[in-house]
Amino acid sequence: MHTSNYWVGHFKANATQHRINWEQLPLISLKEIDRILPSLQAWQLGETSEGKQLIAAATRYASKTNDPAYLEAIKLFIKEEQKHDNNLGRYLDVLDLPRIKHNWGDSLFRFARHLNTSMEMWTLAVITVESTAQIFYQALRNATNCPLLKEICTDILIDEAYHITFQTERLDMIFANKSVFLKAWRGVAYKIFYYATILTVWAAHRKLFNAGGVDFTAYFKKMRYKYAKTIKSITHSSGFVQLA
């Protein structure tokens, strides 16, 4: 279990890493663009959040736990997510393709974020979405032969692996401090939220997943493994036996 100061150091160090060669031109066919464009545009839009609600929740949580470094870590985490938005947007710009401003999936998640004031639910949501993002970017990387897009995806995948660890450690801490009663229904609620979210992501991006060689069976198997590795392991390691 790492401290908040550790994560502040990690995010600052990672911000100095430059893994993308923007001097190279994108080499992508019209057929490949057709397969990936709607999902690429939608995911780029989803990465544009300023994180105001998350920062507000983190501010209250950091004050409550007397851990000001956690708030700094969250701000650096958001900045890293915005880097993903900038890189995806820059790729669209290079291709002279539009950045969209509205998407049903993004609107749904933004609405849910505005309703959420809990650090616990924010952390659960980030773990879930970033777990799907790992499969999304792996599929996007495999869906074309464009070296520039592959570098963008690889850079994001490196970041996302650390993001999930960062958030999983925090959810473990939050869950461990709950009473037995609160743990009992949360274990089930976590599972419902997780699977509802991943099915929504599949519905929105199944064309891209298929283009990257991930059919529904493979997608669901991967997400079930990620659930067991993160969320289910949190509830079990905290001394709680799940009801479902």
From TrEMBL:
InterPro entries: Ferritin-like_SF, RNR-like. SUPFAM superfamilies: Ferritin-like. This is Ferritin-like domain-containing protein. The lineage of its organism: Bacteria, Pseudomonadati, Bacteroidota, Sphingobacteriia, Sphingobacteriales.
